[in-house]
Amino acid sequence: MKTHAISRRRLMTALGTVGAAGFAHAAWAAADDPLQKLIDTQGGDFGAGFDAASRTITMPKSSLPTLSPSTAQTTESAVVRYEQIVARGGWPVVPPVERLRLGNKHPSVKALRARLAASGDLDPSAGSTDVFDSYVEAAVKRFQARHGLSIDGVLREQSFRALNVPAAARLEQLRLNVVRLRAMSGHLGPRFVVCNIPAAQLEAIEGDVVVSRHIAVAGKPDRPSPDINSRIVEINFNPYWTVPVSIVRKDLIPKMQAEPDYLTQNRIRIYDPRGHELTPQQVNWYSEEAVNYRFKQDPGDFNSMGTVRINFPSAHGVYMHDTNSKTLFGEEYRFHSSGCMRIQNVRELVYWLLSETPGWTRMDVDQVIKSGERKDARIAKAVPLYWVYVTGWATPDGVVQFRDDIYSRDGAGAAQGGRRG
Question: Which residue has the higher pLDDT, 420 or 379?
Answer without folding.
Answer: 379
